[in-house]
Amino acid sequence: MSLLGRDLAMDLGTASTRIYVKRKGIVLDEPSAVRRDSNTGKVIGFGTEAADGADDTEAETCWPVNGGLPADNEMARRMIRHFLRKVHRHPFSRPRIVMALPEDATPIAQMALRDMAFEADARGILLFPHALAAALGAGLPVRDCVGSMVIDIGYDSTRIAVVSRGAVVAAGTVLGGGRGVNRAIARWVENEYGLVLDDGEAEAAKRGAGQPPYEEVVVKGHDPDTGERRWVALPAQGIREAGGQQVESIARAAVETVESCPAELAADLSGQGAVLIGGGSLLRGLGRRLRAALSMPVRRAERPTEAVALGLGRCAEELGLISKLRRR
Ligand SMILES: Nc1ncnc2c1ncn2[C@@H]1O[C@H](COP(=O)(O)OP(=O)(O)OP(=O)(O)O)[C@@H](O)[C@H]1O
Ligand SMILES: [Mg+2]
């Protein structure tokens, strides 16, 4: 390690933050959450600790990141500083950090991201396009002239990109990712069973429906008539169908992105196929639906939830890569 501190890469996700340390790999993967005392507003925990204490009525959890950018500057800064101190315990040096820049970030948002990272104790910030980080982390040949497609299904959004020769050639965004599926499941349960599910319960139903024996998932919902909470057994098939609309909008946007590509790249893609990353890519049946819509091979990356951090980590390992890819 240099006296100036290690180089790190950080994927600041809406649901989770992942940190990659040069020559070590991913060393932190925690919810992007801050826990505060409801009465005093004092911060009492970050990350896993903050997300786990959700049942405590004396405290509330806030999620200060949205779409890769700080939504609550002060809380995001304190959370990042906490994470950085956890992985970079060197009192006399500060790390240099590679972070993802969302494609739709305005110059002001970009500046806010930089300022926040500096204030959180970074020595230098390098911003790298999110889509390229995703493609690198998914193991795609980003610098080749062939086209590669990567679809990142995150918490609140799905980002679709075709990259070739180190640049983004076509891109699309769908509002809604994993949370959109949860909301659709909660709506279906309310209509069919008269029970209200909170996001945690809808998430449990979604994950349960993707696990063997794929038949039934039991969750606890709130009955608005009696005010009581009661258990309900939901058919896994119904849960999967409820999330179908969100899957359809992802499929539509993926098709539109391919259609907006130059013809020769679209031809490459039909052979190369698309790679899915992000937590939402773990949704059962998604790959099959996308394969049918796109008429091309679709596979999930080896480490889907870590792909963006791994791609940014590649840049931290080889800082020259950033300028090589940017120059194109
Ligand atoms: N096993 C699973 N099955 C279905 N969905 C899952 C599973 N595991 C995680 N998810 C979903 O993944 C989503 C979070 O994905 P991810 O961790 O990639 O988001 P993020 O990187 O924090 O957010 P973003 O990239 O949108 O800022 C959640 O909505 C969650 O429901
Ligand atoms: Mg993400």
Automatic annotation (TrEMBL):
It comes from the Bacteria. It is found in: Cytoplasm. Keywords: ATP-binding, Cell shape, Cytoplasm, Nucleotide-binding. Signal peptide: none annotated. GO terms for molecular function: ATP binding. InterPro entries: ATPase_NBD, MreB, MreB_MamK-like. SUPFAM superfamilies: Actin-like ATPase domain. One of its GO terms (biological process) is cell morphogenesis. One of its GO terms (cellular component) is cytoplasm. Its main location: cytoplasm. Belongs to the FtsA/MreB family. This is Rod shape-determining protein MreB.
